[in-house]
Automatic annotation (TrEMBL):
MF term (GO), any: NAD binding
Binding site for (S)-malate: 210, 465, 509
Active site positions, chain numbering: 157, 228
Name of this chain's protein: Malic enzyme
Family named by the database record: Belongs to the malic enzymes family.
Sites where the protein binds a divalent metal cation: 300-301, 324
Organism of derivation: Mytilus coruscus (Sea mussel)
Cofactor names: Mg(2+); Mn(2+)
InterPro entries noted in UniProt: Aminoacid_DH-like_N_sf, Malic_enzyme_CS, Malic_N_dom, Malic_N_dom_sf, Malic_NAD-bd, Malic_OxRdtase, NAD(P)-bd_dom_sf
Binding note for cofactor: Divalent metal cations. Prefers magnesium or manganese.
Malic enzyme NAD-binding domain: residues covered: 325-578
Length: 623
């Protein structure tokens, strides 16, 4: 052992000895402190002792300071560590004897969770199992989700979350989030005040009218804000206590729910009169009053009409965005930008047909137009490349019944009416077709084969969720196009092997955007979420796809990297926000990457053993 190692040992021993309560150490405490001071100042160069201290603190566990103890600790998912409480902690905190004797570390707990997870035979049971874990031990839940993201995302999020919403009453175990009903109108702030945590930074809210592609699920829609916010933490590391899922119950028009004896929401038809708007206004004011002007409100799965209206109404005065319009647009445009690297056809040479003209399609079309303009294509030229089909056929200027209104107007073409998607595609001869209207199987074999006939590498995006609503499956798309298409879907599909080549479909889901975006908004205090932010996000995401991934047909980074992608997106957006005067947090961090990573939620358990110390002996004091 070298002298230096020897002295390090003595140093560490004495440092520990300082805090020992044995009378021997009590007696030598002063002496040992003097020796420590001597070693520090006289023997070691300053940088060496500094390093030693730094290393010690880097490996030291973080110490939690719970205000609760005893059985309450085991019942609080933010604090509970289950069998990972050490023997000392169990005794100090009054839970000794209330846990099986064995002490496990977190990694052993993960193994046990995975064994249990794999025992379940279907995804809904796996969902219920994971939600129960989230309700009893949050750190362990996020550790499992972070370590097994590819396996867990389809369970806690799309598509299984859709199934869970359909059965939300039946699988209800423990409430999560806040339910505010139209009957609470006039008292919305009071209800929000019941939420026990002040430090809320992000809310995901739905009124349940259009849950994924499943339609009106009323109060059962709560699964969506819960799932989205789980990804805030799992993918972007946003602190879970800062997230609040909210369901606004204004009734439902879903007949089977109204008749369902187990339905857990208000048994009444949707209130869509003026009081509905007043209620949403009151809600927006109440969240700001309770949590501050900087609280982020993500609108999710509202009906078409309301989604657009509320976005326009609130985007200028609140920190808000609509994930189905803007988040989906951003991820789809990212996919298109990556696709044209595969097809080698510049954006200006592409023609897009949209199946559907709802939130997602119109959002994508608008952002696509912006992306074209950013590449020097005029609006007039850009509009000529976009064709939209809704339930009445091609959207044309002189449509007979009712004409074309609202956001569709911009995209109405000066063209003869064409009634079916197949006819439109045969007339327009697009390079890309994008489906987002929850019409299962809308991309028929005939359409897919035709796309392969007129294009070397057709772009096929079947974005509707969940899987059961997809316009076609990955396998159908690859088979009909002899593996030549660039395919992306909203819900996950497995890779397909054709002629010895593995084709990997991209998951064009807004999950690649909203967690990282929310992280940037929260940390740099962005108050107005502009359209440019979504274009910037799309560009950055498309740049994150590596050449070898493009070669496999991927237009998004692999799901296994989505956590790193979200962090990088947050870093890039934060830089962008500071540069463009959108970030209000002052001062700008010197190292944005470092400050974001320092904030992020850690799934490591904290120690509950306080660091003991003595008061210094004061001459003349008898304390
Ligand atoms: O939740 C998802 O998977 C994507 C989304 O926002 C939707 O389909 O409404
Ligand atoms: Mg949605």
């Amino acid at each position: 052992m070298s002298d230096r190692q020897m002295l390090t040992k003595v140093y560490n021993f004495l440092k520990l000895a300082e805090f020992r309560k044995h009378p021997f150490f009590e007696n030598v405490r002063l002496a040992s402190m003097m020796v420590i001071a001597f070693i520090k100042r006289a023997v070691f160069p300053a940088d060496f002792t500094n390093n030693m201290d730094q290393n010690a603190s880097a490996t030291d566990e973080k110490i939690a300071r719970p205000r609760v103890r005893g059985v309450d600790l085991l019942r609080d998912p933010l604090l509970n560590k289950g069998m990972a409480f050490t023997l000392q902690e169990r005794q100090m905190l009054g839970v000794h004897g209330m846990l099986p004797p064995r002490v496990m570390d977190q990694q052993e707990q993960v193994v046990s969770i995975m064994e249990n997870f794999n025992r379940w035979q279907n995804d809904l049971d796996r969902y219920i199992y994971l939600m129960a874990l989230q309700d009893r031990n949050e750190k362990l839940f996020y550790r499992v989700v972070s370590e097994h993201t590819e396996l867990m995302m389809p369970i806690i999020y799309t598509p299984t979350v859709g199934l869970a919403c359909l059965k939300y009453g039946l699988i209800f175990r423990k409430p999560r989030g806040l339910y505010i009903t139209i009957n609470d109108k006039g008292h919305v702030y009071d209800v929000i005040c019941n939420w026990p945590i002040d430090d809320v930074k992000a809310i995901v809210v739905t009124d349940g009218e259009r849950i994924l592609g499943l339609g009106d699920l009323g109060c059962y829609g709560m699964g969506i804000p819960v799932g989205k916010l789980s990804l805030y933490t799992a993918l972007a590391g946003i602190q879970p206590h800062q997230c609040l899922p909210i369901l606004l119950d204004v009734g439902t028009n879903n007949e089977s729910l109204l008749k369902d004896p187990l339905y857990t929401g208000l048994r009444m038809r949707r209130d869509n009169g003026p009081q509905y708007d007043e209620f949403i206004d009151e809600f927006m004011d109440a969240v700001v009053k309770r949590f501050g002007r900087d609280v982020l409100v993500q609108f999710e799965d509202f009906g078409n009409h309301n989604a657009f209206r509320f976005l326009e109404k609130y985007r200028h005065d609140f920190c808000t965005f609509n994930d189905d319009i803007q988040g989906t647009a951003s991820v789809a445009v990212a996919g298109i930008l990556a696709s044209i690297k595969i097809t080698k056809k510049p954006l200006k040479d592409n023609v897009f047909v949209f199946q559907g003209a709802g939130e997602a399609s119109l959002g994508i079309a608008h952002l696509l137009l912006m992306a074209m303009k950013a590449k020097g294509i005029s609006e007039e030229e850009g509009l000529k490349k976009i064709w939209m089909v809704d339930s009445k056929g091609l959207i044309v200027k002189d449509r007979p019944a009712g004409g074309v209104t609202g956001h569709k107007e911009l995209f109405a073409r000066d063209f003869k009416p064409v009634s079916t998607l197949t006819e439109v595609i045969k007339t327009v001869k697009p390079t890309a077709i994008i489906g987002a209207a929850a019409v299962t199987g809308a991309f028929t074999e005939e359409i897919l084969k035709y796309m392969a006939e007129i294009n070397d590498k057709p772009i096929i995006f079947a974005l509707s969720n969940p899987t059961s609503k997809a316009e076609c499956t990955a396998e159908q798309a690859y088979t009909a196009t002899q593996g030549r298409c660039v395919f992306a879907s909203g819900s996950p599909f497995n890779a397909v092997t054709m002629n010895g080549k593995t084709l990997v479909p991209g998951q064009g889901n807004n999950a690649y955007i909203f967690p990282g975006l929310a992280l940037a908004i929260i940390l740099s205090d962005i108050r107005r979420v502009t359209e440019e932010i979504f274009l910037k996000s799309a560009e950055m995401l498309s740049e994150m796809v590596k050449d070898e991934e493009l070669a496999q047909g991927r237009v998004y980074p692999p799901l296994s990297k989505i956590r790193e992608v979200s962090t990088k997106l947050a870093v890039g957006l934060t830089q962008y926000a500071y540069k463009n005067g959108l970030a209000l947090k002052y001062p700008e961090p010197e190292d944005i990457d470092k400050s974001i990573r320092a904030y992020q939620y850690s799934t490591d358990y904290e120690s509950f053993i306080p660091q003991m110390y003595d008061w210094p002996a004061v001459k003349g004091s008898n304390l």
